[in-house]
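Appendix B, example 12.
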Amino acid sequence: MVPPRSSQGTSKHTPTAADLQNAFDTLYRDHVDLMYRYASRLCGETEAAKDLVQETFLNAYRGFKRFRGDARISTWLYTIASRACLRMRRRRKGEPDHELSLEEFVPTNDGELRLQIPVEDLSPEQVLHNKQLRQALNDAIDRLPPKYKMVLVLRDMEGLSAKEVGTIMGLQERAVKSRLHRARLFVRRELSRQGLAGGPSSPIRHRFQVKTTTMPKRQTPNHPPRSTSEPHRHRSGHCLRILRALSAFIDDELPRQVCQEIRQHLGACPRCEEFVTSLRQTVSLCRHIPAPVLSPRDRALMREKILAAVRR
C-alpha cells in the first residue's frame, strides 16, 4: 500500500494549526460514519471498532498535509484504517492467519450443498431481521483469516470495486478476486456448519426465504435436462474447475462462452447448481448486513480524544 505522496513545496501558503483543524473537522464530519461502519465490520466489537476509528483519524490528521489528492479521500482513509487494523491484529496473540485452499470447499455430500433458505418471497433485509441467522452470518465472517475478511468486507459489504480494493490493500485485481472467492466459499461453508444447511432439523429451514438474482434456466441443446438419479462426484476435475470460477460467474465478469459452459454444466449437475444457489444466497446476505450506527455522543467523544492525542 502506497501512502499519499508529499505535496510540500507545491503551495505558497503554509497551513496554520487552525487551518489543519478546520480541514480535519470537515474530514471527520464527512467520513467518521463511513469509517465506523468499516471498522465495526472488520473488528466485530464496538470498543475495538472505536479504537480503530480513532487510530485511523489520528494517522489521517498527522498525514493530512501530505495528501495531494491522487486518490479519493475515502480510499485514503480506507487504506489507513486497513493498515491500522492489521497492526492491531498482529499485536493480538492467536489471530488466525492461514491460506484458504479451494479444494477444502468442494462439497462431498448432500448436507453441504444448501443453506436451506428457499429463493423467493422475502428480501435479504427481511431475512436478516432474524437474529439467529444474522449472528450466524457475522460469526462466519469473523472466523475468516484477516486478509480474506478484509477483502470480503471491502468488496461485498462496503461495495467497492475489485480495483479499489486492490488499491487499498496493495494487491493486483486478480489477487483480490481470488481472495474474495475463497472468502465467500468459507462463509458459505461456515453457515452450513452452523445449522443453516442439511436436514429437516435445521433451525432456520423452511422459515425464511431470500430473494437473489438467479440466472434463468435455458431449455436449449446446450442446457440438457438434468438427471437426479445418477450420483455426481464433486471431487472430479471438472467440478473443481467450475468451482474456481463461481464468484466471477455470479459477478458477471466472465466471457459469454465461459458463462455458457458453466450454465451447461449446472444444467447437467443438480448438486453443483444447488451449490451455486447457496453461494448466491451467501453473497446476497453479506451485501445486506445492516450497517452499525455511531451515536452523536460517541462521535463527539472520539473527536475530542483524537484532538487530545494530537496535542500531546
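The CA atoms of residues 54 and 244 lie 39 Å apart. The longest helix spans residues 17-43.
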